[in-house]
Design a protein that fits this description.
Number of domains: 1
Number of helices: 8
Oligomer: single chain
Structural class: alpha/beta
Radius of gyration: 21 Å
Shape: globular
Helix content: 40-55%
Strand order of the largest sheet: 1-2-4-3-5-6-7-8
CATH architecture: 3-Layer(aba) Sandwich
CATH superfamily: Alpha/Beta hydrolase fold, catalytic domain
Length: 250
């Protein structure tokens, strides 16, 4: 019976070191895909997550999404939103996604929470090369309310506003005018009666004003729209692409 080949101890040690180095490099690459940062904006300390595209190159320019999570908008909900809606497609398509968490209970569709803008955006634009110097802004539930509120307050920073679900609560004439130059996308679950009752009339009113708005009633869905999770998130990124081309509906 032939004897198994035996590597000399030095070679085995080398292979062990090489394997460890490869694992370390892989871990570093993986950790670089979603990074956590903290900064102070308008006097508030904010922790946020940044999803980077595959093979990220800091010298290159990328399209970007400012996203908001639902619920309490704390880091727990930020992490959930990243995995449900944003990470896979952003990495694959070459997008940067940034999602801030709230540190002390305020929400981003409230005046106190919204105070960090536009300082937060200006800081991000200094840190990363963003296509056209503008973001798409999007979020689910409370994140959708936040997206429309921030989008209407600082429209010059955005290409499009997306709520899944989401809308602007009792828009003022000034807010409606601010949103008129943006591509607006609304998603709401067929079974989500309270949000449908608010979003459908608003979408019709915006359309009557000649605004670029789409609304999708998601069949069989409640408030948590699962048709936009995972593979379904491709629809969101396709709309982002069309927004930069002028909201051409296909």
């Amino acid at each position: 019976m032939s004897q198994p080949l035996r590597r000399p101890p030095a070679f085995s040690s080398f292979l062990g070191l090489l394997s460890f180095s490869c694992l370390l490099c892989s871990a570093l690459r993986a950790s670089a895909e979603v990074i956590e940062k903290t900064g102070t904006f308008a006097g508030k300390k904010v922790t946020y997550r940044v999803v980077l595209p595959n093979n990220f190159d800091a010298a290159k320019t990328y399209p970007a999404v400012l996203a908001f999570s639902g619920g309490t908008q704390t880091m727990r909900t930020v992490e959930s939103a990243i995995e449900r809606f944003w990470r896979a497609e952003a990495e694959r398509r070459g997008y940067i996604v940034v999602i801030p968490a709230t540190p002390d209970g305020w929400l981003y569709f409230e005046e106190d929470g919204a105070r960090i803008f536009p300082e937060f955006l200006d800081g991000f634009l200094r840190d990363y090369k963003i296509q056209g110097g503008k973001f798409h802004i999007a979020g689910n539930s409370n994140g959708g309310l936040s997206s429309f509120y921030i989008g209407a307050t600082h429209p010059g920073y955005f290409w499009s506003v997306t709520g899944l679900p989401g809308y602007i609560y009792e828009p003022t004439p000034e807010q409606a005018r601010a949103l008129a130059g943006l591509c607006l996308h609304m998603y709401v679950g067929e079974l989500d009666a309270p949000w449908r009752a608010a979003m459908e009339p608003q979408a019709k009113a915006f359309a009557a004003r000649g605004m670029k708005v789409t609304i999708s009633i998601e069949p069989g869905q409640g408030h948590g729209i699962r048709t936009l999770e995972g593979e379904g998130s491709k629809r969101l990124f396709e709309q982002f692409k069309r927004a930069r081309q002028g909201c051409a509906v296909k």
